[in-house]
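Justification of computing resources. Each target in the renewal requires a structure prediction run like the one illustrated here; the chain below, 351 residues long, is used simply to show the kind of job we budget for.
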Amino acid sequence: MLLVLSIVAVILLLQIAAQLLCLWLDGRKYSAPGTLVPVGKRTVHVHQLGTGTPPIILEAGIAASSLNWSVLQPQLAALTATYSYDRAGLGWSASTGRRCNLSQMADELHAWLETLHVPRPYVLAGHSYAAYILRIYARRFPDEIAGIILIDPLTPEEWIKPSRFQRWQIRRAVWFCRLGATLSALGVLRFCLWLLQRGNNSVPRGVLSSFGSAASDTVKRILGELAKLPPETVRLIRERWGHPKFFLVMARYIQTLPVCAAEVSGCDAPAHIPVTVISGAHQPPVRMAEHMGLAAHSQHGHHIIADKSAHWIHLDQPELIVKEAREMFVEIERTAPGAPSFAACDSPETP
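Resulting structure tokens:
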């Protein structure tokens, strides 16, 4: 038994050593596509494309990075200046080590915009979970915003009072994130992604099936979305997923979903700000009604359905988002300046 344990320990150490070597080699081979901006005591990765005003600020989904915008951002950059970035602990941005708090995330977004002197006002565009952050930002800094585009947004009603099944979903997702961190540290995840990129599906599917059908289906959906991204972006994502911290940060986001939903509840964007909400065609009637309500709260609101998309509209129908951005620019030019200021909404503190 002692011999077996010793052999297992040696194999694990060799795997960890190989993973660390691969991370070092990847660090030399693949660089961040954008710029590392010093903000306070840490750095934030920001990727800028295009020129013009008003600039469009892109806020990614719950555990996504600036790479999430690899298809859409170049198309928007033909219209105006665009900025995508990585929130703390994601992509190439340094981690704060704190639990997820929307007010802090809004402040961190504001900090790097100030540091780079990005011209105001901005158009904020966000996917899914990003709607939580942008709604808080719009209340804290209303005079800085020209318009908001919400891409299949998450609503507070969806998670503020999680059902028993939703609580189980959160616990399971957090557990799998922590398992992902372990597999990442051992190099297993890197190896599976490497095989997938070369068309070998048998080994990755075998690994997935050992964790049950639900986990296998979830990962297959994610990999299906990755296939829509440019190959060079997939290589960068594979390199980022080789860092266990990605999965640990994702676990923190998922674990605090109900708290974040409570923080943003009742915190709508000021009514004078134009808001466009683009819903995926997969949304059930209750979610669709909430999306319509988000648009209806704005004096210049607009709600549309992406009839050829599910949740990842910016990968399935990026041209639709570009079209809505053009129309929002027309609305911004038409809207009278000098909109009234609003006080920030009160939000519960994150424990």
